[in-house]
Amino acid sequence: MSDPLNTPEDAQQELMAFMAGGQEFCVDIMAIREIRGWTAATPLPKTPGYMKGVINLRGTILPILDLSARLGLGTCEPSGRNVIMVVQIANRSVGLLVDSVSEIIMVKANEIQPAPSVAMDEMKALIMGIIPVGQRLLSLLDVNLVLPEIEVEAA
Fold first, then answer.
1. Closest listed residue to residue 5, CA positions, set 117, 111, 119, 105
2. Which residues are CB-contacts of 106 (< 8 A; sequence separation ≥ 6)?
3. pTM of the full predicted structure?
4. How many Å apart are CA 138 and CA 128, to the nearest integer?
């Protein structure tokens, strides 16, 4: 995914908006491979608290990450209303458990504001910017930095 803060001002970017932990976020739609309903995950021992476990997705073992927990917004107790966004991070697919997906939005690079400096350091590292959409504010999430071990591989 290209850095939206360093692209030409009139360049349009297509983003997927979603809810996690009661807050609105968005990601570059090109990072999303699939959106599917919640499937119970098999927990794995000695994994971080934000890892729900793994599922079998058409013969591939897919790790499922609770995005709310990863962002420090509390843990999600999944139900049939939750969804898994399958995203490409580095060279791996990862499932992000979110509350819901809402819409696809088109934004210009000059509409993306820098993340505020008052945000927690860990949260600020994951947020590429803030996008005003009507009366709403969406945080642009950098999916490449969601998993710390993948962040190191991608660097």
1. 111
2. 12, 13, 14, 15
3. 0.83
4. 11
